[in-house]
Amino acid sequence: MMNRTITLFAAALAAAVLSAPSGGAAPTTNATSASKLTDLFGDPVVAKAKGAEIKRSELDKSLVPIKANYTARQQNLNAEQTALLEFQVLSEMMGVQLTLSKATDADKQKGREQFEKMLKRLKTDNKLTDEEFEQKLATQLRMQDVTRAQWEQQILDKATVAYILERELKVSLTDADVKKYYDEHPARFEQPEQVRASHILIGTRDLNTNVELTEEQKKAKRKLADDLLKRAKAGEDFAKLAKEYSDDPGSKDKGGEYTFPRGQMVPEFEAAAFSLGTNQISDVIATQFGYHIIKLSEKIAAQKIELAKISDDLKEGLQQQELQKLLPDYFEKSLKEANFEILDEKIKAASELKPPTRPAAPDDKK
Predict the structure, then answer these.
(1) Could you give the C-alpha distances from 167 to 161, 164, 170, in angstroms and in order?
(2) CATH fold of 2-180+308-350
(3) % of the chain residues with pLDDT over 70
């Protein structure tokens, strides 16, 4: 129960925007189907507590991205697993509602400030203009059948809940606590050698079906890659070429840029990137994903990250860990005191069973 509520909401913010596909029409979602069912059968209350209730449409909307994650990993849930998942999400939703009812004006203001801060950082880290950000966000919200106002409120609620819990559970770390953790866990702050490199991917798999292209189609893709290599080596703006031609949705909007250590990319890509000199452009590199053209921007030597550079993030992370330890008991107490009751019979029957483990987002190695 605790992980989804307390996980740094910055991750939720990034996922909501950056998981949008790079192009094409948005597919029909479970949220859209749920909306049609609501029109036919109404929108019953599936859970209630003192001063709060949750309707079926609200639960279904919260389930959309979670079920999409299972689908992305080709994991199908049976009826019992679905009911267990609904129970877990429903309990979390009610816990959040009850927690938000305790928000002070100061909590809300801190939540708003944190939201604005992370929004700015998201655009900066991913090199998105305001226009590019809005386009990506609009696509993702359309897929999830969520309005901009609803999305913003969800993110604000996550930020505000964190501040409420810090106050309610009296979790506060000092700078001395942070330094003690840093000194006692030196290996965790060792940064291995890394490279900052950009690439253009000309894919050799169908972007919609992931089926490998025919040999004839691959020849055409290779010719395009060779032509782009000539243009890049002739001095054309590499980032612009990546934005226009790359088939890698995870990097094209950032001009194809990644920063990574050894062991994160496929072997052919890694070997080429680490062998280049600064500002050098590779030949066409073939991998399982297609044809890559790589430009090295910077080699970053192995180093220990200075405490001053990470102290704020480290303190926040340690506070999150402490809150995670305390949250299950806090939510359980809150739900009990508010007479939490599940009204949907299938979910109620699953309420005594252990909820299923949610899958992590699939790795994206390119």
Answers:
(1) 10, 5, 5
(2) Triger factor/SurA peptide-binding fold (1.10.4030)
(3) 85
Q: What are phi and psi of 261, to 5 degrees?
A: -90, 180
The pLDDT tens digits for 186-240 are: 999 999 999 999 999 999 998 888 899 999 999 999 999 999 999 999 999 999 9
Using one digit for the tens of pLDDT, what is the confidence trace for 125-135? 777 788 888 88
| 3-class SS of residue 140 | helix
Q: Which amino acid is at 42?
A: G
Is the separation of the CB atoms in 7 and 361 below 8 Å?
no
Model pTM score: 0.62
Please check whether residue 20 is in contact with residue 139, taking contact to mean a CB–CB distance below 8 angstroms. Answer: yes
Strands (E), the chain: 45-49, 52-55, 190-191, 194-203, 257-261, 285-287, 290-300, 303-304, 341-342
Give the integer Cα–Cα distance in Å for 297 and 302.
16
Name residue, tokens 């009812």.
Answer: 101
Contact 296, 232 (CB under 8 A): no
Convert the pLDDT of each residue in 70-101 to its tens digit: 887 778 888 888 888 999 999 989 999 999 99
**pLDDT number for residue 36:** 57
8-state DSSP, 188:
G
Residue 288 pLDDT > 90: yes
CA–CA gap between residue 191 and residue 65 (Å, rounded): 33
CATH code for the part of the protein at 193-301: 3.10.50.40
Q: Could you state, in order of their start, the residue ranges of all structural domains in the chain? A: 2-180+308-350, 193-301
Length of the chain as a residue count: 366
SS3 (DSSP) at 300:
strand
